[in-house]
Specification:
The structure holds 2 protein chains of 2 kinds. Chain A is of the alpha+beta class. Chain A contains 16 helices and 10 strands. Chain A folds into 2 domains: 176 residues, no CATH class; 248 residues, no CATH class. By secondary structure, chain B is an alpha+beta fold. In chain B, strand 8 and strand 9 form a beta hairpin. The chains are: A alpha+beta, B alpha+beta. Chains A and B meet through helix 2, strand 2, helix 8, helix 11 and helix 13 of A and helix 2, strand 13, helix 8 and helix 10 of B.
Chain lengths: 440, 408
Amino acid sequence: MFVYYLKLALRSLRRNVVLTVLMIAAIGVGIGASMTTVTIFRAMDADPVPEKSGQLFAPQIDNYGPTNKKVVAGDEEQLQDQITYTDAVNLMNAHAATRQAAMYVTALPVTPPNRDLQPFQAHTRATYKDFFQMFQVPFLYGGPWSASDDTDRASVVIISRGLNDRVFGGANSVGRTLNLDNHEYRVVGVLDRWRPLPRFYDLTTSKYGEGEELYIPFSRAIEAHMESWESSNCAGDVGAPGWDGYLHSECVWLQFWVELPTPADAARYRVFLNNYAAEQERSGRFHWPPRTRLRNVKEWLVHWHAVSDEVRILVLVAFSFLFVCLLNAMGLMLAKIMNRAGDIGVRRALGANRATIFGQCLMEAGVVGLAGGLLGLALTALGLAGVRLIVSESTARLTHLSLSDIAIALGLAVCATTLAGLYPTWRAAHVQPAWQLKAQ
Amino acid sequence: MELGIILKSLRRNKIGAVVIAVQIAVTLAILCNALFIIQQRLAASHRPSGVDEANIFMLKNQWVGDAKDLPARLRTDLEALRGLAGVVDAYATNSVPLSNGGDSEGLGRDPDQVEATVLTAVYYGDEHALTTLGVKLIAGRNFQSDEIVDRDGYNQHIPPSAVIITRSLAEKLFPHESPIGKPVYISFDKHAVPVVGVIDTLQVPWGGGGGWGSRFFYNSILMPYRWSVPYTNYVIRTKPGQLAALMKTVPKTLTALNRDRVLVKLQSLSAARVDSYKDDHGLAVILGTVCVALLLVTGFGIVGLTSYWVAQRRRQIGIRRALGASRQAIVRYFQTENLLIAACGTALGIALAIAANLWMVSSFEMQRLNPVYAFVGALAVLGLGQLAVLWPALRAASIPPALATRGV
């Protein structure tokens, strides 16, 4: 029966090529436009650490106080998005979570072993050893540094695969030394390709940017007075002059992440965080009751507007466009089916019941939908290639079609077209055979 | 009257008419909002920066190793740069317009105020900054060399001995008076800092149409610091036509002076502008493409459905022709019918467009829709309807009156 209906559908579609082409083109263009934006939207909205996004949390602590209005990068609750050095050290020392890491970004000059080459700059993340296990960072060679490296301010470094290729020709460089800003570091690990999108753990500058090329212990970076290359907000109080003054100021400039495997752990950590802020109030550092917050990865991404307004607008526009295309296809299908009311009347007179006619017409809509979907897929690929050409490099990273995007495109096309075909099909099924036969 | 007949026949074709009207409505809603967004983004990308973009380039310099003589090194570099043939002037700074990275501070006129009066971008520079940028001093004076201080980090506390502000800042801080000689207070610091000069236009470092910097786009302040840190930005202004050549020689000159450095982000300000607004342009192109596709789809949809109506009414059209209706009358019939449907669609579309815009105003940083766009969009879809209906209508007009006499 399926094959027979399919044959009927194809024959009917061939009878009015112009209308068929118009319908397929309308659906194809609609699917192409909506899938182009949906692909980008899905990439922005993606879960960068699917297995652990519910277990990783970023704590926030109000260290500015309710009266201070100079919050620039904070939210409506005026909670800062980053934390101070004082709080980072205290939270690290408390060990209240399963894993925890404070971090910030700096840039270091790399002097290649071959001294004839000019030094180059590498983006560097200063952090703790837990960073790597917490975020499930894949290693090509070696592994994270040890806890004692963290406390001893050890000159160890973990390098990205790209930098390993560039400096060591892709060889296992664990144990070799790397000159960073005129200081020798021992390579303890080489990362495999790792590029979480969005770069959830640090959204302060580029949400979809490249990751870092070097990772060094936080304690070592602080000892060497490496300044943050990202935002630092000071709310007026910039502390005493010099590096030490800066460290003890109320400037917020560090990201902080904790791993809390169970909801009970998270609840405990919330209490701990609040107690910590209360303790800061008792000790006289804060002059206001504790205000803290703990957000997991998903909440953090929403808070940071990982999906840009522009893309939201585009998705809205694209789906309205798809709606117009479907209405269009529906109108054309109606025209096409009503043109064939005579045929349908004859078929009904010969014994086909309403359900049969309904099924046959719906099959036609499905075939149009599938063809439109395939055209739409081609147009999506073309659309994404076009978008890649005209947007910035970091946005262009979001324009890759995944298998699930392809499935969504085809599914959407068939379902939407069949849905749009329901009314014309229903009209076809209600053709009065007697009336049609009489008219002929 | 013809209108009565049209309405009567439309009633028999309700769904078809509704399909076209809704298509036109949604098309109009998308069209005018899209055009409005395109215009806003393009206008944003053409905001003047206030500096001589065509002849300026920048590069970042990072010293290798923990150098102790940074101010001296900086001075040597700057002297060498200023001495190059073709260079108008050069200086070192924390931030450059259109580079998308910089600092902001709150400014006020009262040392005890809790909330800053205005937010401003902060640029460091010596007495060469104004000539290098090519900004126009409209009141007061430039920095003097004895006001310039070497600053070796953000946390070094030297209150500036003078500042130069933009006209936009002057108007906000000193609405009805001359700011020259009057004190301002920077981010709750109790030091009174005198304003010594006012410049015409200087944008904040951040570009991008929907970006944060757009909220205080022309609020900029210059502080008399030489940015003597391990990483600094050099800004170089060249004589017209020499930019490309100097962008090649400058890195060589600097490396020849001292090899222990990394030079990155060598970029002309015109290239920085393109980068800054790339996503805005991308958005405009995408929306523009969607608009064109939308008009095509809606247009062809009208052609298809009207053709069907014509086919359906061949006999009736034949009868009308036989009874004396002219070809023009038949064409006019379909045009009036389309106008009627399109007008309903347009009314609905304008309502939808305003609703969509209000939603975007409340959810995103978006301005109210300018009514001109609704008007232009309405004209566009009405015109599209008339254009699309023309071909089927002409086909209808060519139906011979003899058809009426023939049996079906």
